[in-house]
User: What shape does this take?
Amino acid sequence: MGAAIETVGLERAFKGGVKAVDGIDVAVAPGEVYGFLGPNGAGKTTTVRMLVTLLRPTGGHARVAGFDVAEHPSEVRRRIGVALQEAALDLLMTGRELIGLQATLHGIPRADVAARGEELIRRVGLEQAQDRRVGTYSGGMRRRLDLAMALIHEPQVLFLDEPTTGLDPVSRLTLWDEVRRLRDEGTTVFLTTQYLEEADQLADRVGIISGGRIVADGTPAQLKAGVGSPHLDITLSDAGAAGRAREVLGRFGAHLPPPAGVHLSLEAPAGAAAIAPVVRALDEAGLAVAGLDLVEPTLDDVFVQHTGRHLEGAGQAGEDAGAPAAAVGGAA
Assistant: This one.
């Protein structure tokens, strides 16, 4: 089976010859969740708009669900679901009415509309609110309704553009669970996000775009391994025991300089599995440990290495809980 999403040398230039997207190659397998990260202005939104047929490429080509986005945009649209931040929901309609309208626009038989709508409303947990006007919904409820609308025609590929920005922790976890369920059901998900934890939790693979080019691509584990291995930060109770502690720990791995008084750092490629043997060896040598931390590379480390800066919004998940979310639309 071919890729669900594939780009080869994909480009988009604007007036003045400025290339927002400069020849990117991406391949997303069917049933995969692909996290797409990048700083503001890196080209990720332009890339998504080309993939969902809202913007024509000026170079290279892209195929989604087996169809070229420029040559067969209608075929692509029939097979994708899209939830973009700039789309809007009609705040005067009820959730049930919007779901029904979306189903009708997609040509779902009238006899099937009610059952399909009920199923999706239940999946996103809006049963109690389906007959209320959308203008009364919280930001998280609107996001969940938008996701239901994007799924009404059972798309092969789902595009989610920062779906949890501004959501409270409970709403965020609800959407995470639904993304996982969609993956388990075989839906391909192309996810842009400003939360590195979200990409780490949900994405099978992650692509990082910077300056219009893909600068990193791989599984979260592969990308993190590329910026370093885990290490143990050890704090001794007695600074005078540091020399002896270095001798004891030498057989477990290389020391990371520089030691500072009671503080030692030790490479720990095995991660958490290294903790028990290290603590046991120090205890048997009569060396008291005041503290021990396992420090592992993060996607933020990867992002900084490849882009030179931290991702906007990184580490802020939950800080904007309860803030009104931008209204987003259903399928393209």
Observations:
- The chain has two domains: 5-224, 229-295.
- The radius of gyration is 24 Å.
